[in-house]
Structure formats: C-alpha cells, structure tokens
Specification:
lipid-binding, mainly alpha, Hydrophobic Seed Protein, 133 residues, lipid binding, 6 helices, signal
C-alpha cells in the first residue's frame, strides 16, 4: 500500500493534521472566520436499523419485543440535539407516510407509550418535524 508523503517527508495525514491545527489556531484570530465542526444529525439508516425489532409488532400486533423498546430508548438518548430530534422525526414521518392506512400507523404511534418512553413528537405522516426543539 502506498503512502502519500508531503515535502517534509512526513506522511500526508500528518501534514493534514498540522494544517487543521493551524486553521483552528487561526480561527481565533480577529478577522478570520471560525472553523465549525458540526456533528451530523441521526441518519435514517441508524433510526431504521435501531427500530427494526419493532417491525413484527407494527405489522402484526401482539407483544412488543424488548429489543424494540430498547431501540426506542436508544434513539431517544442519541437524539441530544434539535437537529437529531428533527432528523429522527423526519425519518419516522417518511415511514408513516409510506404506511398510510391500516393499523400500522396506530401501532407504531403507540409504541413509545407501550414501552414507557417519552418521545418529543407523534409518529404520524402529518407531524411537523420543524416544530420540534
């Protein structure tokens, strides 16, 4: 495997780290823009994979699997920021919109309550995710 080398003889990764450190130091200087490193909001794939154990209940009813409740708790605890909560809401809203009609929506919407978990939004195709703080 080839390693890209900067002129100083150091690997390019080290040079990139030095450049990033320099940018961070300079960002505190007057007249220079601040470098902002943002953490990405929860992805829909994370939300879907975490809540996958809920699918049998949503489809058929019956007992709510413990892994489903654990997944709901996990998503709620991972959604620390407004962006995370809005992202999770949007993911679930999209799923709810695709499952319009039938008992699926009411089962999905009732899951947090059946698991004893408070979720800051209603699982519905009509929820306004932008209103979530």
């Amino acid at each position: 495997m080839a390693v890209a080398v900067a002129r100083s003889g150091r690997p390019a990764a080290t040079a990139a780290a030095v450049l990033l450190a320099a940018l961070l130091v300079l960002s505190g200087s007057p007249g220079i823009s601040t470098v902002v490193v943002a953490r990405a909001a929860l992805s829909c794939s994370t939300v879907y994979n975490t809540l996958l154990p809920c699918l049998p209940y949503v489809q058929s009813g019956g007992a709510v699997p413990a892994a489903c409740c654990g997944g709901i708790r996990s998503i709620v605890s991972a959604a620390r920021t407004t962006a995370d909560r809005r992202a999770a809401c949007t993911c679930l809203k999209n799923v709810a919109a695709g499952a319009a009609g039938g008992p699926y929506i009411s089962r999905a919407a009732g899951l947090p309550g059946r698991c004893g978990v408070s979720v800051p939004f209603k699982i519905s195709p009509n929820v306004n995710c932008n209103a979530i703080n």
